[in-house]
Design brief:
With about 200 residues, this protein is mostly helical. The chain has helices at about 20-35, 35-55, 65-75, 90-95, 115-125, 130-150, 155-165, 185-195.
């Protein structure tokens, strides 16, 4: 649909750095077309002053250098001026980082998560003592919270005791007569569920 007088962004030229807007891009394009080197230099410094007012430095040490790098990118390195900084490395700003590899691991019981299974392995190898007892207590309480969250409000103490014994190959045996779980704040979980909806 082509209606006279309407100009859509989708029909316009692509912006190199959209955060500065189309007007700054037009200024940069104009600066490139100026014939006199002095005019181009003055125009570039004016553009940098405007860009600096748009995005104050907030304590960044290399703020000016960053602005000049952005100007070089927006001009596609065609602006022939006396650059106050070396802008040859500015192209690195525009390059996208390599995607991170997502660790795909087989988790035996998904509601406990992979980190809990690392704790189970740690508990298996720890020597008996107060440090292992404290880690077992923290692990058991976190397991109960995970179970409570995944089973929508029900977490059985015997299930947690059985699971921790099973996943640590019987090394950690909690006695429910001597071990008490921390009280779970039900409001915390119900508020999270409401936010998700």
């Amino acid at each position: 649909m082509n209606i006279e007088g309407l100009d859509y962004n989708t029909q316009r030229e692509h912006l190199v750095l959209p955060e500065y807007g189309r007007e700054i891009q037009k200024m940069v394009d104009h600066a490139v077309t100026l014939e006199s080197r002095e005019e181009r230099q003055q125009c570039a410094e004016t553009i940098i002053a405007i860009m600096s007012r748009m995005f104050p430095h907030n304590g960044e040490a290399d703020h000016k250098r960053k602005l000049w790098d952005h100007l070089a990118l927006m001009s596609n390195f065609k602006l022939d001026i006396d650059w106050p900084f070396d802008v040859s490395q500015a192209a690195k700003i525009a390059t996208k980082p390599e995607p991170m590899a997502y660790p795909m691991q087989d988790i035996p019981v998904r509601h406990y998560g992979n980190m809990m299974h690392e704790l189970f392995d740690k508990l298996k190898t720890m020597p008996p003592g107060p440090e292992r007892d404290e880690l077992a207590r923290l692990t058991a309480n976190h397991m109960k919270r995970c179970l409570y969250q995944w089973s929508h409000g029900s977490a059985d103490d015997e299930k947690v005791v059985s699971d921790i014994a099973n996943f640590t190959d019987g090394v950690i045996q909690l006695d429910l007569d001597n071990f008490t779980f921390e009280k779970i704040n039900e409001r915390e979980f119900t508020e999270k569920r409401k936010k998700k909806k």
